[in-house]
Amino acid sequence: MEPAAVLAREAIQNSVDAGVKGEKVRVEFRRVTLKGKAKAEFVAAMGLSPAITTHRADLKLPRDTCLDSLKDPKKSLQLLFIEDYGTCGLHGSPSKSKSHFFRLLLSLGDDAKVNEAEGSGGSYGFGKSVYSSNSRIHTIVAYSVFDPALSGVPEKNHARLMGCSYFNQHEYKEEEYSGRAWFGKPKNKGAAVDPLVDADAHAFAERLGFKKREENDRGTSLLLIDCGVECEILRDSIEEWWWPRLLDDELGLDIALYEQDQRLAPPRPRKRADLRPFIECFDLAIGRSMPVDQHHKTGPFNKMNDMPLGNFGYTVVSDNGILDERLQSKLGCVALVRAPRMVIEYMNVGGTLPLPCVGTFVAAPEIDNYLKRSEPACHDKWDAKSGRLSELAPEARETVITILQRLKIGMKTFARDAAPEAPKQELRLKTLEKLLGGLFRPPTSGPGGEGGSPSDPISIRFVDDPHVIADQQAIATQGTFRVALAENSDRDKVKVSVRVNCLVQEDEGLSKEDPIPVELQSDELNGTGIKGADGGIVFELQRSLNPLFSFKSQPYAPDWTTHVQVLVEEI
Fold first, then answer.
1. What does the alpha-carbon distance between residue 517 and residue 503 come to, in Å, rounded to a whole number?
2. CA distance 287 to 360
């Protein structure tokens, strides 16, 4: 993902998370270019020279930065201001690790925001790295106004300003340094700094080019020094990832872009041909519009453990739409959206679809915490393997798995159903293919339902054949089988792994990309079985032992056709 996209996603995410209930969040991006006297005054105020320039080699700063031309009045210095309104600001004690101020500026990165109320996006720790990485000299300044009652200090401050640099760890005069540098009011003989507060903060903010905030003008302003990100690219990225929030009637989001104090055109996602189909699906998913024909589909996912999962919208892209170059890379994708109303990912469902389709999934608020915990620090996917899901109940991971599988299979089913019927001649050819495939396919089971070929040392026998049962508003597959050493096996014991796959039958065959999760268990292993990461059970199979296994799949749509595979592998 391009730096501008990451910056747009994370900067707005942090502002949205800090939003005040009942107020619409507004974020302004101001790009300012300094030359001549204005540049010299800024460099002097920040002390960039000699504070940073003299240590440039030790800090291993890259070439082609503003440090090359700080004293040249004709060379420009680019600044990017990011200022939010309708937010709570960076309140809390600067010395307390859980305060907003500390987490954005002082922490090394944390997951604290993940534990906050549902509907938030991520952690300030990652946000800080996004800001600093978009400064060529890895230096930012934060200026914030907040409720004095929440200042976290006896003085009841209402404003703070502090600068931070995030350099590489390095040595200087045989001493090691972390690479962290602070700009503020010195204390402890210069060994540490405090932020500037109240009147001092306001005065210095104006010197640096910030818009002065009044005491009740709460929010946070950030300055990225030597930032090359252009507002036009930021606007494209904001449209790409934040269109659900921009178009949400209840939450809303105001964005303003400025170049040298000249206001630019705002984000207009509905004018982008590559986003319009996803917006159409979003409107379907939230009930703002209804399907008009078989080329549109919407509905809720069936509940899981009595918990709603969310609503989907699918659409077939028009012939004119697929001509858009940017949309072509998004065909076959579903926009994943949860409470903050940012697109987490344009997830490709995989495989080849018979029609150009896209979709949008809007997650239910009840599972927002599950999905938030599944995301990496950059919030760019829902990952069922995330270690943070282990902190929640088992159904959290199962929920993420189920959503991703239903979306992938659901989109494919929609595309197949929306496609025109194949000519009869083509249907006859497909039937002939299946017959020929059956004639030339090697045998996979012996008489009496025993699995495996005659040379296998292991036999599989179904006691209760796989069958479909009703499960809430969906269906599931269950059954039982026994595993034993074959009579002609020359061994008395072997270590094996037993697992069950439940595959979805599609037109082109069995889909192995996203098998339906299956719960497998056996009460006849006397505690010797070990659960594997793939859901299978590892144990030592002895000639005197033919344990009974039972399995049940997770619920799936009633119109799906599935195929069960029992796999026994020697370890």
1. 9
2. 12
* pLDDT grade for 423, boundaries at 50, 70 and 90: low
Asked, for residue 317, whether it belongs to a domain, the answer is yes
The torsion angles phi and psi of 568, rounded to 5 degrees, stand at -120, 120
Collapsing DSSP to helix, strand or coil, 286 comes out as coil
Q: Tell me if 6 sits within 8 A of 378, measured CB to CB.
A: yes
Tell me which residue of 357, 363, 365, 318 sits closest to 345, measured CA to CA: 363
State whether 266 and 277 are in the same domain: no
- CATH number of the domain where residue 492 is located: 2.60.40
- Which is it for the CA torsion 119, 125, 126, 130, positive or negative? positive
Rounded to the nearest 10 degrees, the angle between the axes of helix 276-285 and helix 231-246 is 20
Task: Assess whether 382 and 335 both reside in one domain.
Answer: yes
Q: Is residue 423 part of a domain?
A: no
Separation between Cα atoms, residue 49 and residue 45, nearest integer Å: 10
Q: Considering the domain boundaries, does residue 443 fall inside one?
A: no
Cα-only R_g, the chain = 30
Query: For residue 121, what pLDDT is reported?
Result: 45
Total count of domains within the chain: 3
Q: How far is Cα 41 from Cα 61, in angstroms, rounded to an integer?
A: 23
169 and 298 assigned to the same domain: no
Integer Cα distance of 516 and 466 in angstroms: 14
What is the value of pTM for the model shown?
Answer: 0.76
Cα 226 to Cα 8, 28, 436: the distances in Å are: 17, 18, 67
Amino acid identity, position 305: N
Inter-residue contact 30 to 80 (CB < 8 Å): yes
* Whether the Cβ atoms of residue 264 and residue 258 lie closer than 8 Å to each other: yes
Grade residue 510 by pLDDT with cuts at 50, 70 and 90.
Answer: confident
Instruction: For 296-329, write each residue's pLDDT tens digit.
Output: 999 999 888 889 999 999 999 998 888 899 999 9
- Report DSSP state, residue 246: H
Q: Whole domain around residue 411: which residue ranges?
A: 272-418
Pairing verdict, β 474-485 and 196-197: unpaired
Are the beta carbons of 554 and 476 closer than 8 angstroms?
Answer: yes
Instruction: Clarify whether residues 30 and 116 are in a common domain.
Output: yes
Bridging pattern class, strands 26-34 and 254-259 = parallel
Query: Residue 229 domain-assigned?
Result: no
The three-class DSSP label of residue 16 is helix
**Which among 301, 281, 289 has a CA at the least distance from the CA of 367?**
301
Dump pLDDT digits (tens) for 359-398. Answer: 999 999 999 999 999 999 888 999 999 999 999 998 999 9
